Amino acid sequence: MNENLLDVLLYLFENFTLADAEHVSNVRDDLDDAGFFPDEIDDAFAWIRATDPAGQALASSPSEDAIRVYSEREMHILDAECRGFLERLQQSGVLSATAREIVIDRLMALAEDAYEGAEIEQLKWVVMMVLSSAGQDQAYARMEAMIHAETPGASH
């Protein structure tokens, strides 16, 4: 995974709303002050822009009941645990089929090579970022609740 890009994205996610991050004039200055390089900042904003469903080049909108077949490279990046988690999110209504494809696309964009896989925690952050930047507040809240429910010692 491209850890530098992920660090910038996590910083943005924790300190700003991703949907507004690129439109706030002082965000770039804040990222620069935090020690991120200009090319990393540019890459992060390009990554965020690609979370917009209108910017995705899907051949057609995937059917909600279609079975997702992963390419060989996707299976190298997304292990069985990650693929199962994505399936669970879609089945529970947290992710639509289109949002799932955006999450997969954004994870693949973070992958530096075909042999370095995503970890489940990275997947969860990407899902949260995609839902946040798309303004899917209800799905975001459900995802957040799922994460807290999985945390050991969380109250039920």
UniProtKB/TrEMBL annotation:
PANTHER family: PROTEIN SMG. Signal peptide: none annotated. It comes from the Bacteria. InterPro entries: Smg. Pfam families: DUF494. Belongs to the Smg family. This is Protein Smg homolog.
